[in-house]
Amino acid sequence: MGEALAAIDLSASFGTHKVLHHVSLQMPANCVTAIIGPPGSGKSTFIRCLNRLHETVPRATMSGTVLLGDEDVYRMDAITARQKIGMVFAQPNPFPTMSIFENVAMGIQLRDGKRQTYLSEEVERALVIANLWSEVKDRLKESSSKLSAGQQQRLCIARALALQPAVLLMDEPASVLDPFSTLRIEELIDELKDRYTIVIVTHNLQQAARVADRTAFFLAGEMIEQGTTTELFTTPNDKRTEDYVTGRFG
Ligand SMILES: Nc1ncnc2c1ncn2[C@@H]1O[C@H](COP(=O)(O)OP(=O)(O)OP(=O)(O)O)[C@@H](O)[C@H]1O
């Protein structure tokens, strides 16, 4: 099951450049929360703070609290935090020299050791949940680079799911995909929320409207407004949100 994620008073900088200012946001369990906003508004930085990827950037700093359920993510071991809060990126990035099977198995092997009797079962399970199993079950030993871009992205989702996360962060997960592959990812997101909490960054407002239960609007490193997706798109409280969702800028 997914767990709720909460950001409390989160600020983040790259060196002296402060890019996120006191953001607080609740991301309820088993909901899809979309983060929208114009380029450079801090959306990616925000989700990279949620799973502690931000701290891997030289000279990057952050302050504030991130809670997964009632656990402080910044008091966990960073590797554990990134297993519990998985992530997929805009550009599908399977390990090109590894097979389809190895891509999904590798995280489990790093965590639990090389030879696990349950490895095949776990790989199958993750590929089934990512809606990829039926397309790859007879070619698990083939290189992941033989898959289409949409399949590669679902492989990356399976790779994250193999570690049984509670949360899946998705940073523009369909931005380089064709419309059909995008639709498959959106359908998958809708299915995944029964098991995981999902946070998706998207610059595509129609996509946020289609997939998200809740939406937060970011501008210049601030979280301007958040609410149910319907509220945010139809009756925004802030003029800047209204201007953005009606396409006046961005
Ligand atoms: N590795 C980095 N080093 C220095 N500055 C960075 C780095 N990554 C992002 N920034 C800066 O932080 C600010 C926020 O960027 P971020 O990528 O979080 O915004 P975004 O809303 O996700 O943008 P986009 O929609 O273009 O991906 C921008 O000013 C960006 O230039």
TrEMBL record:
Stretches assigned to coiled coil: none
UniProt xrefs under Pfam families: ABC_tran
InterPro entries: AAA+_ATPase, ABC_transporter-like_ATP-bd, ABC_transporter-like_CS, P-loop_NTPase, PstB-like
Protein name: Phosphate ABC transporter ATP-binding protein
Record keywords, A-Z: ATP-binding, Nucleotide-binding, Transport
The ABC transporter domain, residue ranges: 5-245
Record-linked CDD domains: ABC_PstB_phosphate_transporter
GO cellular component assignments: membrane
Highest taxon of the lineage: Bacteria
Single Gene Ontology BP annotation: phosphate ion transmembrane transport
Organism from which the protein derives: Sulfoacidibacillus thermotolerans (Acidibacillus sulfuroxidans)
Single GO term (MF): ATP binding
